[in-house]
């Protein structure tokens, strides 16, 4: 990145800071509160600067002030000097453009971490800008604040305004706060956006969809602060957790990497630049094997271990094709469609491809559920080069707009990433519809459809297909060979299977290339697998033991959302920095939690299998299967979140007696002959942890009961109100009036008890953990191991546990599991 680019980038970031100025000391708290509430109320802010000159128009809409006086109807024009003029209302309707008709263009933020990051912050799906736009808005009693846009040429700005702004010295760069141009589209209410009407406060508060974490989310919009001296961005969340991101690559020149190993593929210079900037000196084995075919236009079905670089195995051929065929007579610009099973994965792939093709200026968008649909419509209408989508949202958009349908039929590349997952419930129906739309011989498709879709008999251009996953069945190879290019009627027993999918996909290639380089045991060589056999009731204890004994980024997989809802609060009580991730959370909260997890090297994430596939979270050290997965494939994908890109990692199964059959099933599927080794446990430490975990569980249970009774009462009261009946106090669990003092006291007692339990736990957590059986008084007397030995053992100690050497779980597993591996018989 050039010095100029770096400076622009810094300016943009610092502009965010200046938009939310630091509060003065005396009013710090109040200002912060106001700022947050303004963030909610000022749902949109548009900063538009005329390119190439020093005058600008800016507008911050949805002011609280104007909302309090809705009867005033005046039109304010924001002048180039930044000053407001009251102008006469004129009927200039036709001069104005709809918000979607403006030339929005995405702001390429050059730091990869920051791109992903920024996207998750403050509601941005991405930063966008538009130049040369005149903004007017008016306040009306009926519609609230309405904003209008008009495209202008730079010479249309009256010279008076330049004079007005003369003191700003045109040659000087704009102050940082004025150089940011963004439009926070995701914070708009979609319905209002259509009319370019700015939503009022009440609309943003009454979100009927508001589900889990919505309140927390609303109040938890992080503030970004930039310290340019130390080159760090600080994200401040309301819960006072700060995250610092060092803008390493923004300040340092990227090292020159030798990329000779890529030369044989004859890639475009933009792609080579991308590889160089990402420090990818050589292709990974799957890339080495798949690229020659992918680049020559062959259909490729590829399977390779998790974290082995499959994204670029299909991504590079698509990007390279777009760059090399620019300007050729391809209808529209839309060239590639990549379908993935999860939203986070789609966003990640989009980022990865953007980072790869920065200098190629390829338009790549993500179309996923849970994010603003209006924005996705606008981006779709602009014909991006590549769409990365989840089938549900894409189908929703395709089915309501014929133009999108027509465009999508002309794609040149179709990718099904994690193809096997997409056959599972919840994805297959939409995928089926999309494949029907893409079908080049649609006249024959009625056999395949449950809900017949009326389609035209259009012959689209030929299309290259990529199918990738870490877990594709090898029988597919046979299936691929047997298939011919004509679609066949699918036997009922193969419906919804990979076999059906292979027949549904209209490969160009009579003989698609099948590349299988998965290791014999399906998991990566650098992954160390282990297990702890324990009772279900003790799983919390063992999980706590592991994450306290081995602090490091840890992903804990569970089989149910309820388990996440139980585990996260317990771990929070134990002072663990823990986040949840599951499908019932609001999408923004999902992204935010993922973002926080990515930034904090000691964080723990408790997740459902929504995080099992594809997510490339840097440096996840441990994966814990709190509950065993139901299939060997899920085990492979979950475990694959660690030990990526040739790094080491550990996977730990907490296996209860009831899960033994599942355990056998997993081992059978993975064709393992050896039993998975037991993870070594320090009995002294685990015993000393029991009191903490029991207290945390007790507090959680008590709080849950209390919450449940007030929730039940709330529901009863509401129902009684709606039916207009009087509610007898005896029906309420928490009596808030009347003479039943005993019961009221009972509730108070419960609260007191919770407070006292919390105080006990706090006291325990404030002390360093002393392994049970170790005496701090008599340093050499110990049942398990004495403290003197422990303290003398090593100079580096785990800060939370007294006298315990700071080791990595992988080291302990290697060195301590000395017992010979048992043969495992199924
Ligand atoms: N040639 C390369 N050299 C070094 N690192 C690479 C290379 N190609 C990809 N990577 C990095 O390897 C990591 C894993 O890549 P990717 O996410 O594509 O793996 P994957 O095989 O799709 O994994 P999964 O099966 O879990 O989806 C990423 O961080 C990516 O940036």
Automatic annotation (TrEMBL):
Its EC number is 3.6.4.13. GO terms for molecular function: ATP binding; hydrolase activity; RNA binding; RNA helicase activity. Residues 260-288 form the DEAD-box RNA helicase Q domain. It catalyses: ATP + H2O = ADP + phosphate + H(+). This is RNA helicase. Residues 291-490 form the Helicase ATP-binding domain. PROSITE patterns: DEAD_ATP_HELICASE, HELICASE_ATP_BIND_1, HELICASE_CTER, Q_MOTIF. PANTHER family: ATP-DEPENDENT RNA HELICASE DBPA (PTHR47959:SF1), ATP-DEPENDENT RNA HELICASE RHLE-RELATED (PTHR47959). A motif (Q motif) lies at residues 260-288. Residues 55-71, 194-213 have a biased composition (Polar residues). Residues 1-92, 152-177, 191-225, 803-826 are annotated as: Disordered. Residues 740-767 form a coiled coil. One of its GO terms (cellular component) is cytosol. The keyword Chaperone does not apply. It comes from Acaulospora morrowiae. Keywords: ATP-binding, Coiled coil, Helicase, Hydrolase, Nucleotide-binding, RNA-binding. Residues 540-693 form the Helicase C-terminal domain. Residues 30-46, 816-826 have a biased composition (Basic residues).
